[in-house]
Amino acid sequence: MATIQEVAKKAGVSVATVSRVLNNSHTVKETTRFKVEQAIGALNYAPSVLGRNLRNSESRLLLVLIPSISNPFYTEIINGIEDTAIHEGYNIMLCETDSNPQREAIYFNLVRNRMADGIILMDPTINRNNVLQLAETHPIVQCSEFDKEGHISYVSINNELAAYQAVKHLIKIGKRKIAFINSDEKFLYARERKAGYEKAFNEYDMSVEAKWMYNIQKLNFESGQQAMRTLLNQADRPDAVFAVSDVLAIGALKEIHASGLNVPNDIAVIGFDKISFSNMTYPTLTTVSQPMYRMGCISATMIIKKIRGEKVESMLLEHELIIREST
Amino acid sequence: MATIQEVAKKAGVSVATVSRVLNNSHTVKETTRFKVEQAIGALNYAPSVLGRNLRNSESRLLLVLIPSISNPFYTEIINGIEDTAIHEGYNIMLCETDSNPQREAIYFNLVRNRMADGIILMDPTINRNNVLQLAETHPIVQCSEFDKEGHISYVSINNELAAYQAVKHLIKIGKRKIAFINSDEKFLYARERKAGYEKAFNEYDMSVEAKWMYNIQKLNFESGQQAMRTLLNQADRPDAVFAVSDVLAIGALKEIHASGLNVPNDIAVIGFDKISFSNMTYPTLTTVSQPMYRMGCISATMIIKKIRGEKVESMLLEHELIIREST
DNA sequence: CCTCTAATTGTAATCGATTACAATAAATCT
DNA sequence: AGATTTATTGTAATCGATTACAATTAGAGG
């Protein structure tokens, strides 16, 4: 590949002038610019981002850390991030942590090593101290999941309110024995949605029963099935289920179906996230919709501001309860 | 952030020695190594990948281009790529082209600009000439979708055979009016699977009817529904459907259900890819499974070999027909 | 204690760009 | 024309690492 030196020689100018053409500085004469552009074309030259980045000490790369790309919840967020990033001249590196501390270390080092300029963090399971420490010296924003005590900016929704409204909806359609399929409570959203669930129960003087609570380990369909199986095997079976993720709710739906019960008459089901598949289930799934694309855009804007050294403020966006056939 | 110079000064050695410690050269005395490591620790130093990359003229970054991250088909492939890449000391940049030529240009330039060392290409819709031209000078491999005429290495499956077997399976369970929901035939897999479909028809002396073929535009659930709606509205409705993607098949399933027909008795359905959702539908979906994780691993290995200047050979991997409730 | 070889360490060039500052060319003004 | 200002272009330092080669130090042998 050609370098800027070769272009300069071919065009009969200095490297500085070539660089000026590249960065379209207005201080270069039209005829010179033309010569340089000819040379660039002739040599099929493209500037090395390596040299430029070293000089400017930036990489124009954003690290996006997600627990798992297979969860459709993240795809819209990522679209938002990518659109915004490209618009601002950044590219993104999408990295799946798999909640694996070794990967975490690798990816965090990409920022320490200046391979990336900042991190959009969506993986809540990552070692808290590491994150806080990294945030001391490098730009980080949290998206969706965040650390309430920390001082790291975030964009998310009001999970407690959303869960409260979802459960209240179930109560209003006459359900009282409402089961709760939750994630591991190390996740903030899990704790907050649980609080919302309990708040609704308290408001209607219903008692929160441990037997109707189930915490899954892995966020996939099978966990939802497994959870529902356990819940159905009880003497006093629930008449509704609130799952903290559509993926779990769909697994539950499947299991209810397998046991010959009807949704929503026997058991109503409500999920969370409004993933696109949630409209394809039988029956279609009632769910809580989050403004995922916007969350992505906002977190990208936030991290870029942070990289530029500007101040940013955390935000909580609006959610919406989408009532469909399953309730 | 500290630089190698500061570490050298603090440790009382030259930058060369620090570099040697960093790259654990064996020509450094144990006591010196210790001093340097102390300094590194004290300054919380991490080497800048920018400087190193410039010097080594490599980025250790692999570009992975996919049409859309929301298609679950790709997630397993990506896992394979990522695992292999990390193991070989590479990181990946996952990029969604959205089949958008502008994005294509941006991402292709990342290789030209040496921001990435090579490309794993899964987006078939990209301008063919651009790809071939880029492949002249830069490492590219194709995964899943590929260019038969080109000379670019690929890893994929035998789509024609897989489709042939799928359709034959439908014929064997007594179906004769087999509809075909296909993608745009600009895609190789679409053309090949169509060939397989026709081959099965010919073998059983069945005539391929245009009215049972439907080409979708966008690969999502809604397209599958739309396609099925059209197929059902015909006087002579099909008794089976072969869709080239589970996503489409699931949409079709939904539509069949909505029209009150039974799967598989009235209409059998078969998909392609074995995405994880396909086991959550009602009824569960018969589908063709591809070794996606392995495809990912192999394509990563191939591109890394190419980057190192080694020769690589294209491969076709084995597929498998997974028979479930929908047929 | 001195020589000679082997083991360490240091010096300085290099990768490919950007940019402050200096130098030159062109344009404007007396 | 000559002086002065302005527009263009060039020179060389710089970013942070790696590494060939030179220089130094240490160890072995006499």
CATH homologous superfamily classification of the largest domain in chain A: Response regulator
CATH topology of the largest domain in chain A: Rossmann fold
Name the CATH class of the largest domain in chain A: Alpha Beta
> What assembly state would you assign to the polypeptide chains in this entry?
homodimer
Strand content range of chain A: 5-15%
Written overview of the protein:
Chains A, B: GO terms for molecular function: DNA-binding transcription factor activity; transcription cis-regulatory region binding. Chains A, B: Pfam families: LacI, Peripla_BP_1. Chains A, B: Residues 2-56 form the HTH lacI-type domain. The structure is a homodimer of 327-residue chains. Chain A has helices spanning 4-11, 15-22, 30-43, 49-56, 73-87, 101-112, 128-137, 159-172, 188-203, 221-232, 246-258, 292-307, and strands at 61-66, 91-96, 118-121, 140-143, 154-157, 178-182, 213-215, 240-243, 268-270, 287-289, 315-317, 320-322. In chain A, 45% of the residues lie in helices and 15% in strands. In chain A, the strands form 3 sheets. A 6-stranded parallel β-sheet of chain A has the order 2-1-3-4-5-11, sandwiched between helices. A 4-stranded parallel β-sheet of chain A has the order 7-6-8-9, sandwiched between helices. A two-stranded antiparallel ribbon of chain A has the order 10-12. Chain A is elongated. The first copy, chain A, folds into 3 domains: 4-47, lambda repressor-like DNA-binding domains (434 Repressor (Amino-terminal Domain)); 59-157 and 292-318, 3-Layer(aba) Sandwich (Rossmann fold); 159-289, Response regulator (Rossmann fold), CATH 3.40.50. Chain A is of the alpha/beta class. The N and C termini of chain A lie far apart (62 Å). In chain A, helix 1 packs across helix 2, helix 5 crosses helix 12 (292-307) and helix 8 runs parallel beside helix 9 (188-203). Chains A and B meet through helix 4, helix 5, strand 2, helix 6 and helix 11 of A and helix 4, helix 5, strand 2, helix 6 and helix 11 of B. Chain A binds a DNA duplex (30 and 30 nucleotides) through residues 3-5, 13-20, 22-23, 27-29, 32, 47-57, 114.
